[in-house]
Structure formats: structure tokens, C-alpha cells
Design brief:
two-stranded antiparallel ribbon, 17 helices, 73% helix, globular, benzoate transmembrane transporter activity, Inner membrane protein YdcO
């Protein structure tokens, strides 16, 4: 029987989950929002609403199902936004695309044919598209090491050394190093934000076919393929039996509710799901859902102070923020590339998807991720027909 208060072990696990989940990827979220045309106030609102949405979703779903359901923002999704061209209608149009991606996620959970279609996208192509999205971002730290060595190199070295001790602390340690660099380079200028607590900013969504196809659908695909579906698989690997369709619909609904406040996508977590589901969370599997609940509470707390985080980040050189985002994504890039090229018969289609996506081209208003997946899909079908 589940107890009515959290075991202390799950409180500490929840804190680690939130620190890893938030501080390992918030620079990428900010980059993605700024690339979509968000103002500083809108970016702070987006970061705040994304953190609170995933926190509340984790709390509600874990309590309702008594399962360790860890929820996250879509790190691959915001990486996609960071390398995509801003829509012609500005951030309002991007918000419309976020809403469409959330609606598709709800539909994928409620209508099985769409869910099966999303799951039927070959893993090699989905991972190749993700790898192509990440490559330009992961190159930035090494460009910054040349152009901004005294700021970028301490961050890179901290990330590398901390990662040798524990991979989970590598990026939070790099964030701390970047904060010290910002303070040391501020001189007599204050780096303290004007406000500590964030205020939500309503963004009225606008819709266009180009943004739906170029941003909304790729955001849905990459989130489903690299977050939602693996998140279910992780929980099942630890002996839990979540209802995939309902969870997809719930996190899609959270995306819809938070999108007008600037949040890109709420989804099931994969890495932090493993942290909540394993024996380190709690020896008793029936108590592990408390880790996801506590993680959700800490996410909400971090979200409330998002404006202070974004205000502090505004004092950093853009290359320094790019360095943080890049080192945070190197591990994801390695995993995506490995998964994309694992199957030899699908390798040609995967590398085609990877190369076109990494090229950053835009044709007919559609971004490289769309064309990469389309070209790779055609190559995949032709190759499989021959075989």
C-alpha cells in the first residue's frame, strides 16, 4: 500500500531529477525560443510555463496512476527550434505550431492509427533527423573555444572533467562554471536580474500552413520518437505497465495548455524516467512514484524563478550560451548517431536524412528537418523494396 507522505530517499531522488532535467537543458530551451522570435519576457514565460507544466503533469499523473511517471520538456524538440528559421509571423506563429504539435500528440494517444504511424517511423531515420538537428549546435563550443577561449574553455573543461566523475553532474557543473565566467567578466556591472519571480506572458497563437508543416509536425515527430515512445519503454523495462495512449494524450494536453504562455512541448521523460524507476529511487517499486512527484515539485519551484535565470543568462555572451547548449547535447548526439547507423541496411537512408537535416536548407518555406526526413524516407522505401 502506498504511504501518504514521501520517503526521504524519494525526496532526494526527486531533487536530483529536477536539477539534472532543468539545468542540463534550459540553455537549449532559451536558444530555441529566441530562434523562434521570442522576446526576453516571452522566453522567460516560456521557460517558466514549460517547467511548471512538466512539474504539474508529473505530480498529477504519478499520483493518479501510482507510477513513476517522469515528465520533461522536449530537449530534442527545442534543439530543432534552435536551428530552424523563425516563422514569418514571428513568435505568435511559432506558438500556433506548438499548439498543433500538442494536438497531434493528444490525437496520437486517443486515435491508435496515428499513434501507430508515429511509432512506424523507422528509428534510424528519426534518430538521424535528431542527429542532423544537433550537429550544428554541438559544433558551437569548439568555434567558441577559438573566438572566446577565456570564457568557453573553462566551461568545456569543467563539463569534460565532471563527466568523468559522474555523467549526470557534467552539464550542471558546466552551468555553474558558466555562471562564474559571467560574474568574473561583468566587471563593475551587476548581473543580478531585476526580478526574481517570473510572470506569465500570454501569446495569442497564429497559424499558417508553412509553420505547421515546417515546425509543428517535425516537433511532434521528434518528440514522439525520441521522448514519448522511449519514455514508455524505459518504464516498462523496470516492470511498470503504463497506458501509453492515455499518457501521450495527457502530456499533449499539457502542451496545449502551456503553449500560449510560450512553452514548446511537454512530453514523457526518458533519462529521468530511469532515475525515478530504478532501485536507487526506492527499494520498494510501489514507492518509486514519489520520486517523480518530488521531481515535479522541484521543477515547479525552478519554473517560478525562471525570470531570474533568463535575466542572468542575458548577461552572458551568446557564444557562451551556445557553448553550454552544445556540451549539453553532445551525449545526445552520440546516442542519436549510433542508433541511426546501427542497422547496416538502413544506413544509407539514415545518413541522407542526417546530411540534409544538418545542412540547414530551407525550400518552399520548409526547413531542413522536413526535407531530410522526406528524402530519407524515400531512400528507405526504395532500399527496402530492393531487399
Amino acid at each position: 500500500m502506498a504511504q501518504s507522505f514521501p520517503p526521504m530517499q524519494t525526496v532526494s531522488t526527486g531533487l536530483v531529477v529536477a536539477v539534472v532535467g532543468f539545468f542540463s537543458s534550459f540553455p537549449i530551451v532559451l536558444q530555441g525560443l529566441h530562434a523562434m522570435g521570442a522576446s526576453p519576457a516571452q522566453a522567460a514565460s516560456g521557460l517558466m510555463s514549460a517547467a511548471i507544466a512538466m512539474g504539474l503533469a508529473a505530480i498529477a499523473l504519478s499520483l493518479w496512476y501510482r507510477l513513476p511517471i517522469s515528465v520533461a520538456w522536449s530537449t530534442p524538440g527545442v534543439a530543432l527550434l534552435a536551428v530552424s528559421a523563425a516563422p514569418a509571423g514571428g513568435f505568435s506563429e511559432a506558438v500556433g505550431a506548438f499548439l498543433c504539435a500538442g494536438a497531434l500528440t493528444v490525437l496520437a494517444g486517443a486515435w491508435r492509427p496515428l499513434g501507430r504511424l508515429a511509432a512506424a517511423i523507422p528509428t534510424s531515420l528519426a534518430q538521424a533527423m535528431l542527429g542532423g538537428v544537433l550537429l550544428p549546435l554541438c559544433i558551437v563550443p569548439f568555434k567558441a573555444a577559438v573566438d572566446l577561449p577565456w570564457q568557453a574553455l573553462p566551461v568545456i573543461l569543467t563539463w569534460f572533467i565532471a563527466g568523468r566523475i559522474n555523467r549526470l553532474i557534467a552539464v550542471p557543473a558546466a552551468v555553474l562554471a558558466a555562471a562564474i565566467v559571467v560574474i568574473l567578466n561583468a566587471g563593475d556591472n551587476t548581473v543580478l536580474p531585476d526580478r526574481l519571480m517570473a510572470a506569465p506572458v500570454w501569446i495569442t497563437p497564429e497559424f499558417s500552413l508553412a509553420s505547421v508543416i515546417g515546425i509543428g509536425i517535425p516537433l511532434f515527430i521528434v518528440t514522439m520518437a525520441t521522448q514519448n515512445i522511449p519514455g514508455i519503454a524505459v518504464m516498462r523495462s523496470f516492470g511498470f505497465s503504463p497506458d501509453a495512449g492515455r499518457l501521450f494524450s495527457w502530456v499533449g494536453g499539457a502542451s496545449i495548455l502551456s503553449a500560449p504562455l510560450g512553452a514548446p512541448a511537454t512530453c514523457l521523460a526518458a533519462i529521468t524516467a530511469a532515475m525515478c524507476s530504478n532501485e536507487d529511487s526506492h527499494p520498494d517499486p510501489d514507492q518509486r512514484y514519489w520520486s517523480a512527484i518530488m521531481g515535479g515539485l522541484f521543477y515547479c519551484l525552478f519554473g517560478v524563478f525562471a525570470v531570474a535565470i533568463t535575466g542572468f543568462a542575458a548577461h552572458a555572451d551568446p557564444l557562451l550560451m551556445g557553448t553550454l547548449a552544445g556540451v549539453a547535447l553532445i551525449g545526445v548526439l552520440a546516442n542519436a548517431t549510433s542508433a541511426a547507423l546501427e542497422n547496416q541496411t538502413e544506413r544509407e537512408a539514415a545518413i541522407l536524412t542526417f546530411a540534409i537535416t544538418a545542412s540547414g536548407i530551407t525550400v518552399f518555406g520548409l526547413g531542413a528537418a522536413v526535407w531530410g526526413l522526406l528524402a530519407g524516407g524515400i531512400a528507405y522505401l526504395v532500399t527496402n523494396r530492393k531487399n
